[in-house]
């Protein structure tokens, strides 16, 4: 599903370059905002890639930073133009986590810790329908159907024949026992997890109840990594009304160390498969 021009990633790269130019100029975001008569939050959102950026914005910022090389200005303006194109997910309308989808679409690898449910990239349709309906009881049927289709469309990243997303998932044992939809839905879901876990680029480990307190006790998170060295890793934490993206090296490193502890505390791959298989058989009774 990855395309040559991913608008989310383009915005992110452009924002990083604009931040670099500002820092080279020795200016604060507040000083730039004052010069352009805009809010400081706008400058911050442009630099972190969370806001769409126009070619006019780029031109104005380059003027403030006194960028004399016209080739650099033109390159940045082309990036701004590319960043305003639409990814495949825009066809589904307003998606709350569209920024994340853009990052996931371009990521090389993804590490996920899920304490409550089976992670979205490994969900069956029936399980996804039950999860989305249960989590959004006030949403319309049409809205929930759209979210299901987006979730299933995202899964093409792990089923692609060429350069599939490398996925490592740590599932809390609670996710295996929580009956979502029905016992039949759960049996089919766990059988699907087993099948997917046998693919060479997908690893699934289970964090057993017996571990007790552990490094992921504060909740779900994901770590996205990219092939291009210019794209720093991102920690994604999903929220109810807003999501959190952490990109500072110190933050990413802290969550990476936490994930290594989770992997060490989890059952190994074969033991994890045996546990998933055993619980799947229990649902068949």
From TrEMBL:
Coiled coil regions in record: none
Gene3D superfamilies for the chain: lambda repressor-like DNA-binding domains
Domain (HTH cro/C1-type): residue spans on this chain: 18-72
Superkingdom classification of source: Bacteria
Name this polypeptide is given: Helix-turn-helix transcriptional regulator
Organism from which the protein derives: Streptomyces thermocarboxydovorans
Biological classification of the source: Bacteria, Bacillati, Actinomycetota, Actinomycetes, Kitasatosporales
């Amino acid at each position: 599903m990855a395309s040559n021009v991913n608008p989310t990633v383009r915005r992110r790269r452009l924002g990083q370059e604009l931040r670099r130019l500002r820092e080279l100029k020795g200016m604060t975001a507040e000083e730039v905002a004052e010069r352009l008569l805009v809010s400081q939050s706008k400058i911050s959102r442009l630099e972190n890639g969370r806001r769409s950026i126009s070619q006019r914005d780029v031109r104005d910022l380059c003027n403030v930073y006194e960028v004399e090389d016209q080739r650099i200005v033109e390159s940045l303006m082309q990036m701004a133009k590319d960043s305003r194109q639409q990814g495949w997910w825009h066809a589904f309308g307003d998606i709350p986590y569209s920024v994340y989808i853009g990052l996931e679409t371009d990521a090389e690898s993804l590490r996920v810790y899920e304490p409550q449910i089976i992670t979205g990239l490994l969900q069956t349709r029936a399980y996804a329908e039950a999860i989305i309906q249960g989590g959004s009881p006030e949403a319309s049927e049409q809205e929930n159907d759209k979210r299901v289709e987006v979730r299933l469309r995202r899964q093409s990243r792990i089923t692609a024949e060429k350069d599939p997303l490398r996925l490592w998932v740590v599932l809390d044992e609670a996710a295996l026992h929580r009956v979502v939809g029905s016992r039949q839905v759960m049996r089919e879901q766990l059988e699907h997890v087993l099948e997917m876990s046998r693919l060479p680029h997908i690893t699934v480990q289970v964090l057993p109840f017996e571990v007790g307190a552990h490094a992921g006790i504060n909740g779900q998170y994901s770590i996205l990594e990219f092939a291009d060295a210019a794209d720093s890793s991102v920690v994604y934490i999903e929220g109810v009304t807003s999501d959190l993206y952490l990109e500072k090296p110190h933050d990413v490193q802290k969550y990476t160390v936490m994930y290594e502890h989770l992997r060490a505390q989890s059952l190994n791959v074969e033991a994890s498969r045996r546990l998933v298989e055993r619980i799947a058989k229990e649902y068949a009774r």
